[in-house]
Design the sequence.
């Protein structure tokens, strides 16, 4: 049984494929990649016989280099489809382009639909991702797509830095994530909402229901890109009287000076998951390992 499952390490694996292969007692294999002088990507599975007639898992995340990584992912899916395998399971822990999940302005694409359709057309049977921006997106894929939650793990990790915290979402869109995190650590949750002072007309951003004055706070979100959303949320929580503030966001892209922007608001720690292929050599970022949860999901899908 141990050789019926193979785990392929994609070129942009955030360090998950080896742990998953170990958990599942599966063979772990690499792919060969090169970039042609004109920029096109070439991929090859060096030993196709290693995956023939097997269940195949491949791991490739989509940050950094989300455009090249999408192409790699499609090429890898196609390379696998050209070999006679039993089933293909794509593990894409960070699904780039998920935030363009609807037409906001007439004339726009639904980017994530375009990309998921292309992946499915390349014979991928199952798709596993982590804390997708909007789980409804996966309806495009239908049966065989799974969103692995992470907020509860991040919240448990955050408890190392805060005492009896309240979980705060930076906006209403992240309320379900806050609920999930709060449930995991048995506490209360809320989201920030714009409030207008009836007398002065001044607009502020404050928790909708809960008084957070004097309380420790975990601010939760799915993704930190430029850091503007979280920096503003931290500043407003501090203004509302929060004591210690910790940030828990699954996908830490932390573009440009995002880290400094957030830390300058007095945030004690930024907790993320190992879903993107980025190393952090800063003091106040810590990553929670999501690999076990992915392995468990794969086991349940293929019945190993
Ligand atoms: C928005 O809907 C997302 O959940 C994040 O809040 C947002 O993408 C974060 O972006 P940034 O870090 O650039 O503010």
Sequence:
């Amino acid at each position: 049984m141990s050789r019926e499952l193979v785990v392929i390490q994609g070129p942009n694996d955030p360090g998950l494929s080896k742990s998953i292969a170990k958990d599942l007692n599966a063979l772990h294999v690499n792919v060969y990649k090169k970039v042609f002088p004109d920029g096109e990507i070439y991929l090859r599975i060096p030993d196709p016989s290693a995956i023939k007639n097997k269940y195949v898992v491949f791991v490739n995340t989509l940050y950094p280099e989300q455009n090249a990584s999408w192409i790699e992912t499609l090429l890898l899916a196609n390379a696998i489809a050209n070999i006679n395998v039993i089933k293909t399971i794509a593990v894409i822990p960070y699904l780039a382009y998920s935030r363009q999940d609807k037409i906001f302005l007439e004339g726009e694409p639904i980017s994530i639909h375009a990309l998921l359709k292309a992946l499915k057309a390349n014979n991928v049977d199952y798709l596993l991702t982590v804390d997708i921006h909007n789980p409804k997106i996966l309806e495009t894929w239908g049966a065989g797509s799974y969103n692995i939650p992470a907020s509860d793990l991040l919240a448990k990790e955050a408890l190392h830095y805060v005492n009896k915290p309240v979980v705060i979402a930076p906006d209403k869109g992240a309320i379900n994530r806050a609920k999930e995190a709060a449930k995991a650590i048995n506490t209360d949750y809320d989201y920030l909402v714009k409030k207008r002072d009836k007398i002065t007309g001044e607009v502020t951003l404050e928790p909708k229901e809960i008084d957070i004055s004097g309380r420790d706070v975990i601010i939760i979100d799915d993704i930190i890109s430029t850091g503007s959303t979280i920096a503003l949320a931290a500043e407003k929580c501090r203004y509302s009287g929060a004591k210690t503030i910790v940030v828990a966001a699954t996908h830490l892209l932390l573009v440009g000076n995002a880290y400094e922007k957030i830390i300058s608001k007095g945030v004690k720690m930024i907790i993320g998951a190992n879903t993107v292929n980025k190393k952090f050599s800063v003091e106040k970022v810590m990553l929670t390992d999501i690999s076990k949860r992915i392995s468990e999901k794969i086991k349940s899908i293929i019945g190993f």
